[in-house]
Amino acid sequence: MENIIGGYFYKIFSSTNPPHQPKLPLTMARFLDSKFIMEDVHKAVFDIGPMKAPGKDGLPALFYQRFWDTIGPSVVAACLSILHDGASMECINSTIITLIPKVQNPERILDFCPISLCIVLYKIVAKAISNRFRSVLDVVISANQRAFIPGRRISDNTIVGFECLHRLKRKKRKYGSMALKLDMSKAYDRVEWVFLEKMVLRLGFSVNWVSLLMRCVSSVSYSFNLNGQVCGNFKQSRGLRQGDPLSPYLFLICAEGLSSMINEAQARGTVTGFKCSRGGPAISHLFFADDSLIFSKANVANCVEVRRTLDMYSLASGQLVNFDKPVICVSPSMDVTEAHRLAALVGVKLVNCHERYLRAPLFFR
C-alpha cells in the first residue's frame, strides 16, 4: 500500500520537463538562416542616410552610393564573406564615441549622450541583418511594445495611456489603482550580452542567427572624439551602441524579458492590470523602447510583486531603474498616507498625475 500511494504521488509531483514553445515559427527561423544575396547588400547601402556622420575611415555612405558601379562588387564580396563565411568583423567594427550635450551648459559626463560613429562598411552588414531581423519581430515581440516594429505606432501607446490614466483619475472605485512610470538609467549601455543571447535563443531564433548577431555586438572596439582628436582604444563587455542599425531591435529583445515577466505575473494574478471598462482587457503595461507605464491595483501585494519583478529583471539584464525619476500616481479615492506607503514599497515618488507620456500631455482641462 505504501508503494502504491508513494508511486501515485511521486508521479503527480514529478516534473515531465515540458518543452519550451518558442515564439518564432520554424519557417521564419529558416528564412532568417537563408543565404544573403547581392540585392540584400545593395538595399542596405542605399537605405543608409548619405550624409550620416562617418566612422574612423571618414567615408560617408554617399561615397559608396555615388561610386557603387565601381566599388559595388568588392563591397558585396566583403559583406557576404562576413555574413556567410564567418570572416572577422573587428577590422570594420572600430567605433568612435562622440558626446552630444543633453543640457544647455553640461558640467558632468552624465550631461552628454554618447553617439557611436560606426564605419559604413559595418553599417552595411548590420543594415542587411536588421532589414531581415525586423521583418519577424512582430511575431516575437508582445503587443505591449510599440517601438521600432513595422505596423506599430507611437500614437497607439499615447492614446491607450491617455484613456487609462483619464479613467484612473476620474473613476471612483472601491479599490485603488496605480500607474507607475519608469525610467531606465543608460538603457542601451547596460545590456548584458549573456542575457541578450539567452533571450534571442529563448524566442526561437536559430543558433547560427544568434551567433551572427552576437558577432556584431561583441567585436566592437571604442575610441573617443575629444575636441576633434581621436584618442583611446578599449573593448567593451556589455552594452549596445546608439548609432548601430541593429541596436534598437536588440534592445526590444531585452525589453521583451521584462514584458514577459509582467505578463506571467498578470497570469498568476499577482499583478492585476487596469481595466478602462468592465468588459475591456486588463492592461498591465505599455512599452515604447525603455519608456514604460505599469498599471495595477494599488495594494501591498501588487507593489511588492512589481518591485520584485523589476529587481529580478535588473539582476538578469543589467538594466538599472533610475529610482530618482520614476513616479507613481494612484486613484483619487485612496488615502494619502496609504498611497505614500505604497510608493515607498516600490521605491518611487508619489505624484498627483503623470503630466506627459512619450512627450504628449495626458490631461487636459
Task: Note down, in words, how this protein is organized.
It is a single chain. The chain is an alpha+beta fold and 365 residues long. The protein has 13 helices and 13 strands. The strands form four sheets. It has a five-stranded mixed β-sheet with strand order 7-8-3-10-11, sandwiched between helices. Strands 2-1-5-6 form a four-stranded mixed β-sheet, with no helix packed on it. The chain starts with a helix and ends with a strand. This is Reverse transcriptase domain-containing protein. It comes from Dipteronia sinensis. InterPro entries: DNA/RNA_pol_sf, Retrotransposon-Effector_Assoc, RT_dom. It holds the Pfam family RVT_1.
